[in-house]
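Anyone able to model this chain together with adenosine-5'-diphosphate?
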Amino acid sequence: MLNKPFLCLLCILFLSTLVLSQSPTQTQAQFLPTVTGSISIPSPNVSLNQLALNVNTSDLNSLLDPRIYSLLIKNKTYPNTHCMYISTPRPEDNITVNGQLIHWDCPAGFFCLGPNNTNIINNNSTNSNTNSTVPCPPGFFCPENSAQPVYCCEGYYCSKDAKNITLCPADFVCSIGTVDPVYCDRLAICPAGSSKANKFLVFVLVFLIAIVIIVLFQIKKKRDQLKNAKYDRLLTEQKLRLERTLDPVKKTFDIEFENLGLILPSGIEIMKGVSGKLTHGRTCAIMGPSGAGKTTFVSLLTGKAKRTSGKVKINNVPDSLEKYRKLIGFVPQEDVMLRELTVRDILVHSALMRLPSDMDRKLKKQKVIEVIEFLELSHVMESIIGNEEQRGVSGGQRKRVNIGMELVAEPSVLFLDEPTSGLDSATALEVCNLLKKIAHSQGMTVAAVIHSPSPQAFNTFDDFLLLGKGGRIVYFGPTNKAMEYFESLGYRCPEDESPADYMMEVAAGKVKPVNREDITVPDLFEAWEKYREYGKASFNNTKIGMPDDETESASRNCCQAFWVEFCLPFFHIIQDIGEYIADVTIELFLFLKRSFCFCQRDPIRETPNIFIAFLLLFKRACLQLYRNRTQFLLDQLLHLGCGIFISLAVSNLDYIGKAPDQICQITPYVLLPICLRAKDSIQNVGVFMALGVTFAGISAGGSTFGYEKVVYWRDTSAGMRTVPYFLAKLVADIPRLLIAALMFTLAFIIFYSFKARLWQIYIIILLTYVAAWAMGYFISAVASKEKLSLVGTGFALGWGMVLSGATPKLEDVKSGGTFTYIGWFWDISAPRWAVEALYLKELEPRLWDEIKTEPLGHTYSFNDYPQCLWNILLIAFGWAVLAFFAMKLTNRDKHK
Ligand SMILES: Nc1ncnc2c1ncn2[C@@H]1O[C@H](COP(=O)(O)OP(=O)(O)O)[C@@H](O)[C@H]1O
Ligand SMILES: [Mg+2]
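re: yes, here you go
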């Protein structure tokens, strides 16, 4: 969550750079003086002769000087307004040239650049339109006797025929060139004559929305309290039962393994010849120095890692534990669980997801209560798990929840990876006693990797597997016989040392047997093999030296070296790819089989079907949202904040129609390109909006899956399917998405004078959010949690800005050239379509002539609006599908 403020900061910095680079001088300054009617025309009262212009009406050259013309016309204030217009010379102005009074008339709604008797043009021009009386286009103001049109001034609106100007009424806002005043939407206070509406009442609306959300959360809290009371009752009933025991497991497992081995693709052998048996109703402690292969052993046995040699028998029949995934509990070393949920939430969810579907729901909840009572967690049942930032249950209690998550699923076999690491010795002993109780009372097969147990904790285990470096057995048998075995090899444990610690030192080769300083760890492995075969513990008297590495490498010829260095790694890559494809194909086949044969039951355990699983996962996702309610509200404020900044950035951007052609004909040549174009900044508004939404959306969407990947891996390894999980999270995100888009929209309109309807802007922002959110899903599926922010920023800049159609320009992209082969990127960019959609809806209500009569700029077209919305939706769908497959197809080893 920390990255969100950072992202916003980055967003703001970036946007401010963009604002600065908007060059207001070009878009605003050059035409605003015209618009506000403040053209500086020298006063006509100044005599022409005083300006040293030697005007001689008989001299054609003098008459053609445009500066003469500019002195004839005059800017005047329209009566009862502050608006200016450019007046033709009036008789009362008393403008004379060489003694002749100059004046001409013009009707309202027209402008007359000159008098209607321009003989020069009449005689020589091929242009038939020689009448200088030109209709004034909508958006301009031409009262009677206008020499040139002016933009309808702000705070007023003009009639479509440009004849009349009226003060903007109260509750409406009239920016420059207004024909239709825009309603303030009740979100702003707009007195008569308003030219801008700062909609600060939005904050009141936001406050009301926050109140509604808080009330909804409070209702949920009340319902929760009722539910808690129900569980408390159940707990009391459970306490009335005398014994804290669980029912025996339905199927017991005796797991026999022979010669288990693993050689890594690099050729390193990390496990070799591990043989033995794990029996039901007994606990086994797996110990060994760090890196000895304890985790590897558990992974090989459960099928999480693929063994390269060895056989596994289950209840004396060759079989694989992988098949019985639903009956195997695996407690990982880290407490992988959703930290914002309560102990009960987690255990109930685990039970409902993993217990047989034909088991009564009440019984499942009863099971949870039993486990809670059994694990002595009843007093913290309603506490959240918590993490480093938010205090929750203690470390020992979390460990017990970690075990409880597996116990509620009624497994027949329970593997635990270092369940006592990080716990104090008393709590560690508690956990070990608990394991013993489970195994003995339920007949479960329990094996736990244990790290430096106290003598008491060590003695709770029935069996003991000691591994040495290289993944080979040093001892495997009853715990109480272990010391006896080592003593028969000549080891003597000092009285003041714990036997468990001493045996660990033996396995690490740190202590030697009495009078046998030459004994090394490999000798211990061989001694164990001999003991297993002949039942007699002894070391070889005469050691046959194995060729050491140096002599071996010396004997390697060139071909062998080439094979090992170059061919083997290549071969392993091919092998990995092959295995990966086979794995995916098998899963796809099983998925299709399951989809087409609905009635086919899982012979091992029929767990809730895809629909029930969806509902359960949806409920959990909603619970996460509810438990994170403060975060939820803060997140929404962040969206609001992003919107406000974007709104500020676009507050001065608008569309102002182009001047009539007749005006451009008399414009100085250097200004002609500006005159011929409308002052169009609406595309930039779209780019800012899309950029803001993409940044905020990616960041918010990335948190949906990005922060709970490990939980997803744990759940899938316990049999959860990705489809219901993905859909449940997606559906649970809908309220977040809707409110985030609403917050952004409300903030966006605070300073921006929009002309489209509010709901139209909301729809466009919402769809863009959906696309950005889905993009966030994808990024979180492929990138690690730490890289999420950086990759998200890159994506937002790439898609939100470069591929938005503004820079590079869409018309350039479509014209081919450099973009011939990459032009399709713009077609699959949601921001590009969002910018167009906003542009179309913003331009539609504007009544400038060129909007209605000429093709739109940027290759846009009014007919494309529905297509734009569909395209954004399709792109969002595409990102969501990509995110799903990325989740499914990456890190497959962790799904097992
Ligand atoms: N997939 C793997 N790739 C490379 N090395 C591995 C892999 N799995 C295990 N190892 C190596 O095998 C040895 C045993 O690992 P592990 O079973 O995790 O030891 P531990 O006994 O501490 O649980 C370590 O040296 C580890 O680096
Ligand atoms: Mg380990």
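Residues 264, 270, 288, 290-296 surround adenosine-5'-diphosphate (ligand 1) (CB under 6 Å).
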